[in-house]
Amino acid sequence: MDAIELRFRKLLGARIQELRQAKQLTQPQLAAAIGFKDYQAIGRIENGRVTASVFTIYQIAKALEVSANELLGF
Fold first, then answer.
1. How much is the pLDDT for 65?
2. Helix, coil or strand: residue 17
3. 17: domain CATH number?
4. How many Å is the Cα radius of gyration of the chain?
5. How many domains are there within the chain?
């Protein structure tokens, strides 16, 4: 993994966490809203340990009631 990908992961994760907390959702609640059985997957995305797929980014944006552009606007 290069520095650009790592930076992207961290920025995306921080943005998801910020928006999730603004909606007063827990990680398990967000996970359930997008159909994830493992809520810890949200934690791994927020911590920048994994890269979310395009579809997962879309699902998260929809669950947080923001556009994908808003989610990726960092």
1. 97
2. helix
3. 1.10.260.40
4. 11
5. 1
